[in-house]
Amino acid sequence: MSFQDMERSLVHPKEKRYYVLSVIFSIIVYLALIISLVGIVYLIIGLLLAFALNLMTLGFVRLNGVRLSERQFPEVYERVRKLCDRMDISKVPDVYVTQAGGALNAFAARFFGKNMVTVYSDIFEVIRTGEHELLDFVLAHELAHIRRKHVSHNILILPARLIPFLGNAYSRACEFTCDRIATYVTASPAAAERGLTMLAVGRDLYADIDVDEYLHDSEQNRGFILRMTEKMSTHPPLPKRIAEVRRIAASWWPKSTAPNI
């Protein structure tokens, strides 16, 4: 089975639903603004501001970050190429490593029509401990955003992205999708768990965390404020992402044959 055929089952069920709602809402907003002369001005200003902020952020990364290549971290660069092959991504995006004051993050973006991935150095440094599979998961997650065109859709659904209960719901569904794709293409549920746990407690502590206890404690966190906090977030809670990785991995690989568990 090709990746394209498998991809349909990897996409989280809510992604398409919220994307369709976001497109409909955004088109209505765009049409309303176009009809109004004043609205056109606001629309142009808003799009220009969004473009300028995105340009400054990505420009800073390209000016200061280190781009992976055959000469810069060649082993990781080759792993990126292999991930792109598995995911039917024809053109390998530029991958940059940049320092961000200890922040643990990575993101996919487009810069003048060109895809790129940025990985903060505190994540990238796990290669020093031999955790290449953990980094593979992080990279595959960001490549999945590119594969699914999540970044390309941002301008189209920009109005919806500004509505927390719609735009954030779509964003959370996209994160689940990318976790699922990354787990599948790396065939390492354990690395996916470690990578997500690292985002919770940092590079130096994640190996000492009892993940079962972490998930159990999360299940006890209930109440209106916590539910509202989740609904207003662009990313699902990390324990829910870990639980989803476990659930979907168990459906793909029986326990006796599961890789890296």
Quick take:
The protein has helices at 3-10, 13-35, 37-64, 74-86, 121-124, 132-147, 158-161, 164-186, 189-201, 211-220, 224-231, 238-252; strands at residues 66-67, 94-98, 106-111, 114-120. The protein has 261 residues and is α+β, with helices and mostly antiparallel strands.
Question: What structural keywords apply?
Answer:
261 residues, globular, 4 strands, alpha+beta
Structure in words:
There is one protein chain. Strands 1-2-4-3 form a 4-stranded mixed beta sheet. The mean pLDDT is 90. It is globular, with a radius of gyration of 19 Å. The relative contact order is 0.12. Strand 3 and strand 4 form a beta hairpin. The chain is α+β, with helices and mostly antiparallel strands and 261 residues long. It starts with a helix and ends in a 9-residue tail after the last helix. The protein is built from 12 helices and 4 strands. The chain has one domain. Helix 8 crosses helix 12.
The helix/strand series, from N terminus to C terminus, equals: HHHEHEEEHHHHHHHH
Q: Helical stretch count?
A: 12
How would you sum up the global shape? globular
Helix content: 55-70%
Biggest β-sheet strands, sense, barrel: 4 strands, mixed
For the record, the count of structural domains works out to 1
Radius of gyration, in angstroms, nearest whole number: 19 Å
What is the secondary structure topology, with strand pairs?
Elements: H1 3-10, H2 13-35, H3 37-64, E1 66-67, H4 74-86, E2 94-98, E3 106-111, E4 114-120, H5 121-124, H6 132-147, H7 158-161, H8 164-186, H9 189-201, H10 211-220, H11 224-231, H12 238-252
Parallel strand pairs: 2-4
Antiparallel strand pairs: 1-2, 3-4
Helix pairs in contact: 2-3, 2-8, 4-6, 6-8, 6-9, 8-12, 9-12
Keywords: Cell membrane, Hydrolase, Membrane, Metal-binding, Metalloprotease, Protease, Transmembrane, Transmembrane helix, Zinc
Transmembrane segments: 18-35
Family: Belongs to the peptidase M48 family.
